[in-house]
Amino acid sequence: MARPSPTAPTASTLEKAANLLLDGRLVAFPTETVYGLGGDATNDRAVARIFEAKGRPSFNPLIAHCDSVDTAREHGVLSSLALTLAEAYWPGPFTLVVPRAKGSPISLLASAGLDTVALRVPKHAIAHALLATVGRPVAAPSANLSGQVSPTTSDHVTTAFDAEVLPMVLDGGACDIGLESTVAAVEGDRIIILRPGAITEEMLRSHGASVDYAAHDGPIAAPGMLASHYAPALPVRLEARQPMTGEGYLAFGQTAEGEDQMSLSQTGELSEAAANLFRMLRDLDRPHLNGIAVAPIPEVGLGRAINDRLRRAAAPRHTPG
What we know:
By secondary structure, the protein is of the alpha/beta class. Helix content is 26%, strand content 18%. It has an 11-stranded mixed β-sheet, with helices on both faces. It starts with 5 loop residues before the first strand and ends in a 7-residue tail after the last helix.
């Protein structure tokens, strides 16, 4: 297996890296926290490649990296408190989870089908230069295989991936912080820490807001932990070989045959199916239908993540008692 070689960041290599990203390929780059495995956050297939490359077990939301506060505000709705935090800690090791801005092209797969986006403006000069050159948000979880230690040097990255999967690794030396960014959400005048990091509880409290920790850490907390989350309004029926009367149909490995049918992948390609999953679930959530039937998906590779989300979508709905 051929490994990628660390590449020195120059004007020409940054341009090459940006072109790779715009073509839907992956590029690893340094930030002040850890090295990120970058893909175009607005490209469903590129985001699916990130999950596939990492062997990520489920579609956890990914952080979209932006080159400025103004760019971030094009993709997320920042309340007064959220904007105060952004202006205090961006650029830097701080991620905000905020409502998605209307019209944002960030992939639904990158936000795991949620109505929120996780945004960060990194401080590292190479990351900033790359983002400015690309001109769009870049999704970038840590550049390591899922479950392994996060990388803080380019060598950590190059030993983990094949060059075909990851054609370029921009070398920025050792990361200054070496710990993933603090991730926080804002609810009214309350700050919820979803993942602790270099921007501490004490620092956040200095803004006069109350600060609490989510029950579980991670890029997005409670929404993704609810069994029935990621669900359209219509009930979802799994392992369906064909739709029943009144159902829309999400096919796999076959052609969609009717107006209310869509195919995750006609050729049975799991990465294509992953890229299409959330968009097609939303598209089939049509008021004239009484449900959505979904074809069987193989429980291998990305299929496990697809099935995880489909099982959540099909789980019994909980209503307040």
